[in-house]
């Protein structure tokens, strides 16, 4: 088993949910206690569908995929800045705002960042919603090369 002193680079995966917020709070507190560097990652998945229909009679140009990607990127930057402002204080934080498959991007970033621990939250889905949506936290835990700390949020 690893010694806690070996956790010098903690990668915290966040999205815009209360579950993620709780995990970020926990991850930053742990990083402070261990004197660890933090990597903060947010991954935007590519939109599956988009309403690109326009109504020229009403002057509505519609919305296109590039517009959605720009909106997602702006929201991600705002989210990461908000979390850093609230929790980082004097910690060294590297930011990773990426697009793609969440599991793949977190695993690849953990490798390139040389993370010794990944911290993330879980939505706690069960039953049919878990079967349909799967579990990002479970997939990351299954494929990670470093330990993964999944922070539960009890409602």
UniProtKB/TrEMBL annotation:
Pfam families: Usp. Residues 7-152 form the UspA domain. Signal peptide: none annotated. Coiled coil: none annotated. InterPro entries: Rossmann-like_a/b/a_fold, Universal_stress_UspA, UspA. SUPFAM superfamilies: Adenine nucleotide alpha hydrolases-like. Belongs to the universal stress protein A family. This is Universal stress protein.
